[in-house]
Amino acid sequence: MRIIDDLAALAALYDDPSPLSLTKVAKSLTPHYRDWIAASRFCILSTVGPDGTDASPRGDDGPVVRIIDDQTLWLPDWRGNNRLDCCRNILADGRVSLLFMVAGSSNVVRINARAVLSDDPALTQTFTQGGHYPKLVIVITLSEVYFQCAKAIMRAGLWSDMPPPAGLPTAGQFLAEMDRDLDAQTYDLRYPTDAAQRMW
Questions:
Q1: What is the pTM of this model?
Q2: Dihedral of the CA atoms 36, 63, 28, 153 (nearest 10)?
Q3: Whole-number Cα distances in Å, 174 to 17, 37, 129, 179
């Protein structure tokens, strides 16, 4: 088995990144990213620690995180299996990534950030479900946010029988916030056809 073990060999396998894939990165929550994340009831929290990496699904019956400001999110740590993999990792290394999904949308919004844990009642007791409070809140400070190419969701057909929620920001709208010369409507209309030609 041939192993790719340096950047030059890796880069030789691929074309240059699309300029829009670099343009779409924001350093804080734009209005459209705020709206999209507020509509998300499910995310995957990824962490890294001395024993390796972990990815944990997080979900709620409303927004999965609370947006505090354009750099800060609160993620309540609701009851689970008490392994505490992500929490132990955050104590050792505050770097985290989150993938936000919305049923019906082929976009995924990604956040790279740093996190700390807080059991301050001023945070934990602002969340309640049936009289229960989370034992702690993961306080997330954003470094960058961007949407992921939709092809993975399209290839898997995850939401092929479900339309996105009305008013959910689109990929074209995310891009137009970062590039005022881009026509969001044209981008969104063309994307399914363009993507179909580059799916595999």
A1: 0.91
A2: -50
A3: 18, 12, 32, 9
